[in-house]
Structure formats: structure tokens, C-alpha cells
TrEMBL record:
Protein name (Swiss-Prot/TrEMBL): Branched-chain-amino-acid aminotransferase
Catalysed reaction equations from the record: L-isoleucine + 2-oxoglutarate = (S)-3-methyl-2-oxopentanoate + L-glutamate; L-valine + 2-oxoglutarate = 3-methyl-2-oxobutanoate + L-glutamate; L-leucine + 2-oxoglutarate = 4-methyl-2-oxopentanoate + L-glutamate
Matches recorded under InterPro entries: Aminotrans_IV, Aminotrans_IV_CS, Aminotransferase-like, B_amino_transII, BCAT-like_C, BCAT-like_N, BCAT_family
Enzyme class name: transferase
GO cellular component, one term: mitochondrion
Pfam families according to UniProt: Aminotran_4
This enzyme's EC code(s): 2.6.1.42
Family named by the database record: Belongs to the class-IV pyridoxal-phosphate-dependent aminotransferase family.
Keyword Transmembrane: no
Residues found modified as N6-(pyridoxal phosphate)lysine: K265
SUPFAM superfamilies to which the protein is assigned, alphabetical: D-aminoacid aminotransferase-like PLP-dependent enzymes
Annotated keywords: Amino-acid biosynthesis, Aminotransferase, Branched-chain amino acid biosynthesis, Pyridoxal phosphate, Transferase
């Protein structure tokens, strides 16, 4: 299927597809222009142009890509970026400095009230020799919205983007040399409330920081040995069959709910899910497919957005379906948005033997999937996110029953095609505005 033109990328804000999500985005933008006291323009704004630089004089040894250090997920690059904030003064000048420990008080708000948010994205070494980020403006805008949800300070998303690019320009050339085309580093922007007061109140101090890490390639075939984070057998051995094996969340376990904070990328969304994740792995599954309500509505798969391709019963048309944003239960994933954008641009007509699909964001439940499976209308399923990238699903276990998901070898046809399109943009095989080129600093 030949590529088609893509709508130009926005300047750091998302374009939700529902009324509620649109209001949420507008609220995030409005929040970003005010300080925590509701005043405007009186506190120092986050300003990347003020950043100071102190280089690490004891550079680390760069490990092999996707080696043991990457699988352990503990090896960071030489530098990090930090910026502190106080309610009295606003943002201090950011610093690019050697990676190292943070100093916070035992009473810090983040340690007691989960006042923390973060992002996850990657820096790619393209096959054309250049470093790239992928739709970084979306990550920065989403982090601003997440910060708003947990009373952390405002900032201009464009300034965070500049800080991320500065760190990538500094550490990217050495940690992703040009002979590592097709490789990547993982980037983790984070904001925590450092206010030392124990009272349950809006934080008066905060710290924004950005770090980069060696990270395992989770997009490889799941038939290969998996890193600890992906191992699915009770004895820790990686399973041999391709595709993610998902198990439905139990009736008494809910990941997110309407009007909650499932849409925000905050730490409070992840800690409570670890028990269910551990139980899933002990039973031989990779991830939990999170359901909601007595009707078992499907929301996410692990920490990824979830997609199915199903033939609609009455019309016979193929539909690419994912859960909607309007109830704020799911994360507005950057990969999710990209999958939907590409499908709407490139899959509206049957081409090269690949049948056209209708893109639908709507509620669907396990009853719908079981009916589609029994009727032979369930075509494929996949999870999509920064860590796993586009990962095909082979099995969904629901209340004692395994639902086999059709596969075309090691993937479904649509997941494979979308994954290739995205990879081409990320690694520079296709020039595209979603791929933000990072100008490297001389080493």
C-alpha cells in the first residue's frame, strides 16, 4: 500500500477527536499560561535559552545496543537536564549537568501524595545518519496536561521540547554513533513535587528533569528471548510463540474510571497495576487487558493503547477500532494518535491486496470480541505505545477461555504495515515532519 500525504503536525498541542477531550486540551493550554496562584505573567517562565551547561568529565562506557545493560534498564547517559520551580519565584534557569542523584527531603510531597508525572519517548539514529525525535511536541503538551491534573506548575511545552533536544544533541552523538543506524535511546522527562511540607496541599516547590537511558528493543519478535520486563512464564523463561498473550483484568480490579486520571501520565496510574501485572506473568501471560464496568468494556493493554481489526456484522466493512478519549479513562498515546492518523490517510482504499478499513474510536467490550471471534469476523489485534511500539496480540484470555487472535506469521497484516510506516519515519527512511531532526554537538 503506497504512502499518502499526512496532515501537517501541530505546534505542540493535540487534536482530540471528541468534545470532552477537546475541552481537556483547551484547559491544559489555558493552565499552561497561568501560574499556580491564578495570576498571569508575574513569575519566571521556563526558559530553555537560560540553560547553563556543566559537562561530565568522567564519561561512561557506552554499552552495546540491546545488550545486558539495556535489558536491565539502569544505564543512563552522561548528562541530564534539571529545572527547579518555586511558588514565589517561578522557574529557575535550567541546567544541563552530569547525571547523578537528586536531593529531596523525606517529607517531600512526591513521596507522600504521588505528585509526579512523566513522559516516555525515544531518540532514534536514522539510516540516513541523522538523529531524530518522533512527534516530541505531543509528548511535551501531554506532560503539561498531566502536570495540571496533579497540581504541578505550568510551563510552555515548547520550552520543554528545547530542553529535550539540548540533551539529545549533547549525549546522542556518543551514545548513538552513526554506526548504530536503526538503534535508539529512551528519554524520560519527569516532574516531581519537592515541597517539604507534609500538609495535603498544592505543592510550592517542584523539580523538572530529563534523563536518557539504554533501553531494550521490545519491538522485536516476541518469539525471541525477552528482557525481564516482558518475560511471561512463572519460571522467568520467555515464551516461544509470537504475539502478546493478554489476560483480562479481574472483576474487582479497575485501572481507570470516567472522570479520573487515566488520561494523565502520572505515576499513580502505574503502581496500583503492578500486582495484576505480576499475577498475569505468573500465569504465563505478557500483559493485562484492562476492562471496565459490568459490561467488560476494553480500555488498554498493559500500559499501551489497544486496537482491534473487526469486520462489522451488518455492513461487512473492516473496522480498525480503539477505545475513545472522551471519558478520560485511557492515555492519549502519541503512538495511538499516529496509528489513527496513518490509517485515516493511507488505509481508506484497498491497495496492494490490503483491504481498506474504517477507523472508529468507540466503546467496545469483550462480548463484542467474542461474538466477532465466533463469527470469524475478528481479523487481528495489537497494542501500541512507545515501549512496545506496535506489538501484535495472539491470545486474549477471558474468564477461563482463550480467544485466539488470527496472525499472519509473526503479526497481523495491518499491525505490520503500520509498524513499517512508523519505523520509516522514525529512522529517516521517509522524510516527514513527524521526525524532528536533532542537530548534533561536536564531540
Amino acid at each position: 500500500m503506497a504512502p499518502a500525504a499526512i496532515t501537517p503536525e501541530s505546534s505542540g498541542t493535540t487534536t482530540p477527536t471528541t468534545t470532552t477531550a477537546s475541552k481537556l486540551t483547551e484547559a491544559g493550554i489555558k493552565h499552561a499560561s497561568h501560574n499556580s496562584n491564578g495570576q498571569t505573567g508575574k513569575l519566571a517562565a521556563l526558559d530553555a535559552s537560560l540553560m547553563t551547561t556543566t559537562l561530565n568529565k568522567a564519561a561512561k562506557t557506552v554499552p552495546e545496543f540491546d545488550g545486558p545493560e539495556a535489558k536491565a534498564q539502569k544505564t543512563m547517559t552522561d548528562h541530564m537536564v534539571t529545572a527547579s520551580w518555586t511558588v514565589e519565584h517561578g522557574w529557575a534557569a535550567p541546567e544541563l549537568k552530569p547525571y547523578g542523584p537528586l536531593s529531596i527531603m523525606p517529607s517531600a510531597s512526591v513521596l507522600h501524595y504521588a505528585t509526579e508525572c512523566f513522559e516516555g519517548l525515544k531518540l532514534y539514529r536514522g539510516y540516513d545518519g541523522r538523529l531524530r525525535l518522533f512527534r516530541v511536541s505531543r509528548n511535551c503538551a501531554r506532560m503539561c496536561r498531566s502536570a495540571s491534573r496533579i497540581a504541578l506548575p505550568d510551563f510552555d511545552p515548547k520550552e520543554l521540547e528545547k530542553l529535550i533536544i539540548a540533551l539529545c544533541a549533547q549525549d546522542g552523538p556518543r551514545w548513538l554513533p552513526k554506526d548504530r543506524a536503526g538503534c535508539f535511546l529512551y528519554i524520560r522527562p519527569t516532574m516531581i513535587a519537592t515541597d517539604p511540607a507534609l500538609g495535603v496541599q498544592r505543592p510550592r516547590e517542584a523539580l523538572l528533569y530529563v534523563i536518557m537511558s539504554c533501553f531494550p528493543d521490545m519491538s522485536k519478535s516476541l518469539a525471541t528471548p525477552a528482557p525481564p520486563a516482558m518475560q511471561g512464564e512463572a519460571n522467568g523463561a520467555a515464551k516461544a510463540s509470537p504475539g502478546l498473550r493478554l489476560i483480562a483484568s479481574s472483576e474487582d480490579t479497575i485501572r481507570a474510571w470516567p472522570g479520573g486520571f487515566g488520561y494523565a501520565k502520572v505515576g499513580a496510574n502505574y503502581g496500583p497495576s503492578l500486582v495484576a501485572q505480576g499475577e498475569a506473568k505468573a500465569k504465563g501471560f505478557d500483559q493485562v487487558i484492562w476492562l471496565f464496568g459490568s459490561d467488560d468494556y476494553v480500555t488498554e493493554a498493559g500500559a499501551s493503547n489497544f486496537f482491534v481489526v473487526v469486520r462489522e456484522k451488518s455492513s461487512g466493512k473492516l473496522q480498525l477500532i480503539t477505545a475513545p478519549l472522551e471519558e478520560r479513562m485511557i492515555l492519549e498515546g502519541v503512538t495511538r494518535a499516529s496509528v489513527l492518523d496513518l490509517a485515516r490517510e493511507r488505509m481508506t482504499k484497498t491497495q496492494d491486496g490490503v483491504e481498506a478499513v474504517e477507523v472508529v474510536e468507540k466503546r467496545f467490550n469483550m462480548k463484542d470480541l467474542i461474538a466477532a471471534h465466533e463469527d470469524g469476523r475478528f481479523v487481528e489485534a495489537f497494542a501500541a505505545g512507545t515501549a512496545f511500539f506496535v506489538a501484535p496480540v495472539s491470545v486474549i484470555h477471558f474468564r477461563g477461555r482463550d480467544i485466539g487472535v488470527p496472525m499472519d506469521g509473526d503479526s497481523g497484516v495491518y499491525a505490520r504495515l503500520i509498524k513499517q510506516w512508523l519505523s520509516n519515519i522514525m529512522f529517516g527512511k521517509q522524510e516527514h515532519e513527524w521526525g524532528v531532526v536533532v542537530e548534533e554537538k561536536a564531540q
